[in-house]
Specification:
The complex is a heterodimer of chains A (415) and B (147).
Chain A (H helix, E strand, L loop, with lengths): L1 H20 L8 E5 L2 E16 L13 E16 L2 E12 L3 E18 L3 E11 L30 H4 L1 E12 L3 E12 L4 H8 L6 E16 L4 E15 L11 E16 L2 E15 L14 E12 L4 E11 L8 H9 L10 E12 L4 E11 L18 E12 L1
Antiparallel strand pairs in A: 1-2, 2-3, 2-17, 3-4, 4-5, 5-6, 6-7, 7-8, 8-9, 9-10, 10-11, 11-12, 12-13, 13-14, 14-15, 15-16, 16-17
Chain B lengths: L1 H5 L3 H15 L6 E5 L6 E3 H8 L13 E5 L4 H11 L3 H12 L8 E3 L2 H10 L3 E5 L8 E7 L1
Parallel strand pairs in B: 2-6, 3-4, 3-5
Antiparallel strand pairs in B: 1-5, 1-6
Classes of the chains: A mainly beta (415), B alpha/beta (147).
Chain lengths: 415, 147
């Protein structure tokens, strides 16, 4: 089984490079089958280097840096009939201990436009569809669509990426052009991809012997943007349901244990000529049902998490961009310094640091777009708190350093 | 004298060639081209942006829109973005990227030359594109942009 997956990875890389090398009909990788029918093939590849002075992120980054952050993707799309569009994308991602480079199906969509005019459209997407959350989730693995190498972690957690990337279900979507700009809406009913060790660690802070399964969940996003692209604002809402099947040995868990996660995000961006200001604000709530019944007090399930960031970027010219960002995470908005959490756990004989309940990240970065296909990025983070530090990359969160720094460098290619 | 020119520093040559390029090709708007079968003579800038963002995919008569561009790295394309659409090329590229890499749309079709652009538009009903030079060409017509 292990041998086969290594073979598949090599095969994928081989196919990918063949695509890069063979001359294409036109440089946009668009193959015309007939008058209005085009197949398009696109892909991306990104290799990053991450260094941290303390703690680990996306690999063994504190030990001379880590090259264990690599994203490869390839997709194909086909406009089959005037109203039907199909697309599929596969992804291979290596990210420290989160992702081992195994090829996964990122999306596979059949998109039917029920009605479309030159002013509005209404349609349905079915299959594995990217989750519409905030400004950056739809294409979070594509460095060209990210403001920097690493997305603001307070909202786009690496830890819960598997839950957030795409889900299997049905999405209703629509857009309407009005005087001031355009409105877009997406409503998604889906089963999240939760069969993963990462999910348990993210949600329960432990790889427990039981199993999470996804249950029907609901996502919605509403966006308004002006015609000249100077302003856009969006509201995203997620209600994620999961069932937990406890192992025999797990006390304090009933057989109908379940979890519900609520997330709401407001996102806004202003674009003036070469300047761009972006901000997002999120609130999170976790509801446990029939879990942790005997021991952990309710404080865990009544917490409201809060995150926000503000980001400023400046494009010098077509090729160079600099940006700076301040990103804040509170696991519990009523216990911002984490002391109440640490004290509550200490009373139960468990020792956890207060700094694991928040993170404040000041980032500065530069992006060099060599041309449309190639890009280089550098960034530096100065972080106070370990609120989003992954347990996977760090053997012991208890001995993690509260203040730490991270530097990143990445080279990316797209076609 | 010849030896002196040969020994010119790289930066001098660089700035001289930049100056040359600026004299030869000032930033100018492109001509908007559509297939002749389309019953329009002008388009609003907002509509043009919506078409090039791949958000509007059909004309008002229901014909699917086929969007053509020249190489996004070319001066011609950059001029089109800055002068005709009045948005930065990177903003448009980002809109296409989000669609392409989330499976919710396709990017415009990238053509290698203006000759190819004219040819493709003339044989594709519902096609739109841009060129720098005007001229009398079969099956295509130039339309104006209204703000």
């Amino acid at each position: 089984m292990l041998k086969l997956s290594i073979y598949k990875n090599k095969l994928f890389l081989f196919i990918f490079f063949i695509f890069l090398l063979t001359p294409r009909i036109s440089s946009s990788a668009s193959y015309q089958l007939s008058e209005n029918k085009h197949v398009q093939i696109h892909g991306f590849a990104s290799q990053s280097y991450i260094y941290t002075d303390k703690n680990n992120f996306l690999g063994n980054s504190s030990d001379n840096g880590s090259l264990n952050f690599r994203e490869l993707g390839i997709n194909a799309s086909f406009q089959a009939w005037k109203k039907l569009h199909t697309a599929v994308q596969i992804l291979s991602r290596r990210a420290g201990e989160f992702d081992n480079g195994k090829i996964k199906l990122d999306f596979a969509i059949a998109d039917y436009r029920v009605k479309q005019t030159s002013l509005y459209s209404v349609g349905i997407r079915a299959g594995r569809v990217k989750n519409p959350i905030g400004f950056y989730n739809d294409t979070r693995d594509v460095s060209f669509t990210r403001p920097g190498i690493i997305l603001p972690q307070s909202i786009y957690f690496e830890r819960t990426r598997d839950l957030s990337i795409s889900s299997d279900g049905i999405q209703l979507y629509g857009h309407k052009d009005i005087n001031l700009g355009s409105l877009e809406i997406e409503l998604f009913a889906a089963i999240p991809r939760v069969k993963d060790e990462n999910t348990e660690l993210a949600v329960l802070n432990n790889d427990r012997p039981g199993v999470f399964t996804g249950e029907p969940s609901y996502l919605g996003r509403f966006l308004f943007k002006t015609h000249d692209n100077k302003f856009k604002i969006s509201f995203s809402n997620v209600v994620l349901n999961m069932d937990y099947e406890p192992a025999q040995s797990e006390t304090g868990f009933d057989t109908d244990a379940s979890l519900q996660f609520h997330l709401s995000i407001i996102s806004a961006q202003f674009n003036f000529r070469k300047w761009s200001i972006t901000g997002e604000y999120a609130r999170r709530k976790l509801h446990f049902k029939n879990m942790f019944v005997d021991y952990v007090p309710n404080f865990l399930s009544e917490t409201i998490g809060e995150s926000y960031y503000a980001q400023l970027s400046y494009h010098f010219n077509f090729h160079w961009k600099v940006f700076t960002r301040y990103d804040v995470l509170y696991q519990n908005k009523n216990d911002k310094d984490g002391n109440e959490y640490a004290n509550n756990l200490a009373a139960l004989g468990v020792s956890k640091p207060a700094h694991s309940r928040f993170a404040k990240d000041a980032t500065i970065g530069v992006q060099w777009s060599i041309n449309t296909s190639w890009m280089v990025q550098f960034e530096l983070h100065v972080i106070n708190g370990t609120g989003w530090l992954p347990l996977q990359d760090n053997t012991s969160i208890d001995s993690a350093a509260q203040k730490w720094r991270m530097a990143g460098a990445a080279i990316s290619y797209r076609f | 004298m010849i030896k002196n020119i040969y020994n010119d520093s790289f930066s001098t040559k660089f700035y001289l060639s930049l100056l040359f390029i600026f004299i030869i090709s000032p930033l100018q708007a492109q001509n908007l081209l559509v297939n002749k079968s389309l019953n329009i003579s002008a388009i609003s800038q907002d509509k043009l942006r919506a078409i090039y963002s791949m958000r509007t995919r059909v004309w008002s008569d229901g014909t699917p829109i086929t969007v053509f561009i020249l190489n996004p790295d070319s001066t011609l394309h950059k001029n089109f973005c800055l002068k005709n659409l009045e948005i930065f090329p990177y903003q448009l590229q980002r809109v296409w990227d989000v669609m392409v890499y989330s499976g919710t749309g396709q990017s415009p079709i990238n053509l290698n030359s203006e000759t190819e652009m004219v040819r493709k538009i003339s044989i594709t009903p519902g096609a739109i594109g841009y060129i720098s030079k005007a001229g009398v060409i079969d099956n295509v017509k130039i339309i104006n942009i209204q703000k």
